[in-house]
Amino acid sequence: RHREPGSKGHVGPVRIGLRVVVMARVLERAVLAVSFTAALLAGAWRALDPFWNWDMLPYMAAAAELDGAPPARSHAIAYTAAQMQVPAEHYRVLVDPDNQYRSALAQDPSAFADQLPFYWIKPLYIALVWCAWKSGASLAWATVLPSLAGFATLCTVLFAWVIHRVGRAMVLPAVAGFFFLPQVNEVAGLSTPDALSSALLVAGTFLLHASGRPASGLLVLVLAITARMDNVLLVMPVIATQPWCRPDHPLSTRWIAGGTIAAILTYLGVRAIGCTHGWCVAPGHAFLPRSLHPQSEPVQWTVAEPISSGGEPARTRSLSCKTA
């Protein structure tokens, strides 16, 4: 039956347009929610089955020392906690009797203590491990929680950045797919500062270059140096290029200079922590073979052989000031 325009039951073009707009917004929000949740679940799934990599042991020992334990005691705390809290098959790998390096460190607190200075130059990660431990988490899981938090932060920032730059939620499934890559989501299950460091660098760059809170970005970027001191090599160019990347919202020369000075001072502070523990470092990386007493050996640069003798993966270290 024909209805006159404006009569009850008539759906005009304006109302149809409004419904389409509302449905489009609902669809975009649904895509955002599903994509973001999927990315977080990818990290959570990886974190629920951690790698229990060997580096967790010195980080656990460093947290114990931060709590006041002497070096010999921290060795016992780390290995006892790992034995009780890590699945048996993973713990056997950590103390593998067929691996000369790992078995020696499990039995020799002195040699194990010689490894710790390299780990002390990541003070923010160690502090977060200590906080998680003292908040009720087991010491082993306390080494994973900062990585999971870093992964979640990285997801949040990248999603916000894409929406800010692209403005379309329909591209977000591709962003979620990025976090499903094993090479990406594995950082959520590692007992290392990798996820934390990446999250701080990306968040700081986003705040400094793509948001209206550049001062907060400076603070976060400077904080990233305490997660991994070599970040200073990335932080300083990111700060220096802010006026060119944001000509509509440039920081003053005073702010740029202040941020650069703060980055250098933070690096020197972290370096002082390493020197206090016997490992003075400069920016840069070298692949070093596993050694029971690394501080007494010269540093040799190599990029061709990242695997040391005996099949033990070589550890990436900053260049030591000691040359022999």
Describe the structure.
The chain is mainly alpha-helical and 324 residues long. Helix content is 64%, strand content 4%. It contains 17 helices and 2 strands. It has a two-stranded antiparallel ribbon with strand order 1-2. It is flat.
Q: Kindly provide the radius of gyration, computed on alpha-carbon positions and rounded to a whole number of angstroms.
A: 25 Å
Tell me the number of strands. Answer: 2
Q: What fraction strand?
A: under 5%
Regions with little confidence, pLDDT below 50 for 5+ residues: 284-289, 300-324
- Main sheet summary: 2 strands, antiparallel
Class by alpha and beta content: mainly alpha
* Average pLDDT, all residues: 82
Helicity level: 55-70%
Distance between the termini: 97 Å
Strand order of the largest sheet: 1-2
H-E string = HHHHHHHHHHHHHHHHHEE
Q: What is the 3D shape?
A: flat
Query: What is the overall number of helices?
Result: 17
